[in-house]
Specification:
heterodimer; A: elongated; B: mainly alpha; Arc Repressor Mutant, subunit A; disordered N terminus
């Protein structure tokens, strides 16, 4: 009988749906999720080791909290402070660089080491290669001048604008510094107000002061 | 690898950008790794799931930037996983190694599954390959008939027919 046969089929479908749901919620499913998570971590590592990703990223502990670091094959491309939204950062990298973005802790190890050394006062210059592709032409000139300010030194916004070839554009220079995609490594914290005030900082003025004190550019506040 | 036409439809995945390309690959991996793992375990068993998992996502990574933001990424990656699993399955058949035992079928190595489920999955596993694929893609991976057809490379009608044949055979292990 046709109706009996289709009832049977419906019973099989129900049984399969129930079994699949049980499979997803049982203790064994947790084990499967853990196995999938581990396989996915190994995959990220493999992709980074083989150079298959266009962007690798990882977090790094710092005195400011958890920084996010991203690098392309050319070099470091982004440093994000803890307040920045991770999804927004990845989304922006996907749009502006490539969606082939993979989390890979080991690929970020050299960058992490240099940052550790810097934060503990053992490093005065970063040697790691940089990828400037997130920076426009004017920003490139401004941040290029900024990158030349030595450890322990400071420049004013007006001086940076002048050295970048646009002496009247110190406000625009301030904006370019605020848009620095690699703070700390490109030392925009070394650009201060002409009167000696510390000025703004993307990561907050307290962090700017902390960095300048670390570098000995200003006396510790008492 | 070509992006199948059938996978470029359906809804935009959560977190995808409003325009342009697909979401960051890591987010895509995070979102679909469990479903891919379950499907692979059910077809090739735990011993080969890892290799198939890596091959699946590396193949996906290769063509990833060419995807549209509104592609059905889940169906797309499950299709790739299914193909990789069948490749592994065929390679193993050539080597004449034993088929994965039923305890491996659903990745439930650390728990004893409901006895009814065990018998059912065993019966699914013993179906002819296409019927087994269709049943797993329908009930384990939750794919609609059109996506199943794209995944196994047949017409939607043929996929429905295989599914019906498979379900008919499974009646013997399901109490009416």
């Amino acid at each position: 009988m046709i109706s009996e046969a289709s009832n049977d089929i419906a019973a099989v479908e129900d049984a399969l749906r129930r079994a699949a749901a049980r499979g997803r919620s049982s203790a064994g499913a947790d084990a499967a999720r853990r196995a999938a998570a581990q396989a996915s971590t190994r995959l990220g590592q493999h992709i980074a080791d083989e150079g298959l990703a266009d962007v690798s990223y990882a977090s790094a502990d710092s005195p400011f909290g958890r920084l996010l670091l991203a690098a392309t094959r050319r070099g470091l491309v982004r440093v994000a402070f803890p307040e920045e939204d991770e999804d927004a950062m990845l989304e922006s990298l996907a749009q502006r660089v490539s969606p082939r973005i993979v989390e890979a802790s080991s690929a970020m190890e050299p960058i992490r080491r240099e940052l550790d050394e810097y934060f503990s006062g053992r490093r005065r210059e970063f040697a790691l290669p940089l990828d400037w592709r997130l920076v426009g032409p004017f920003g490139r000139r401004v941040l290029g001048v900024t990158a030349e300010i030595p450890y322990g030194g400071v420049m004013s916004y007006a001086e940076v604008a002048a050295d970048a070839g646009s002496p009247r554009a110190h406000r625009a220079a301030g904006n370019a510094l605020g848009a620095n995609p690699m703070p700390i490594v490109i030392p925009c914290h070394r650009v201060v107000r002409s009167g000696g005030a510390i000025g703004n900082y993307g990561g907050g003025p307290e962090r700017k002061r902390w960095l300048l004190e670390l570098e000995g550019a200003i006396a510790p506040q008492r | 690898m070509a992006v199948s036409a059938a996978s470029a439809i359906a809804t935009r995945p959560a977190g995808a950008p409003a325009r342009g390309g697909p979401p960051p690959f890591q987010r895509f991996l995070d979102a679909h790794r469990d479903a891919v793992w379950r499907l692979l375990i059910s077809i090739v068993g735990p011993a080969e799931a890892e290799d198939c998992f890596q091959e699946t996502f590396i193949a996906a990574l290769r063509s990833y930037p060419r995807l549209r933001h509104d592609s059905n990424l889940r169906a797309w990656v499950l299709t790739i996983a299914h193909r990789k699993a069948l490749d592994a399955h065929r390679a193993r058949a050539r080597r004449a190694l034993p088929v994965a035992d039923v305890a491996a079928v659903d990745g439930r190595r650390e728990s004893s599954p409901d006895p009814r489920d065990e018998q059912l999955w065993q019966a699914v596993h013993e179906l002819p390959p296409r019927q087994r694929s269709v049943v797993l893609l329908r009930f384990l991976a939750d794919l609609p008939h059109g996506e199943i057809a794209a995944a196994i490379g047949c017409s939607e009608q043929a996929a429905r027919r295989s599914l019906h044949e498979g379900l008919t055979k499974l009646r013997k292990v399901v109490p009416a």
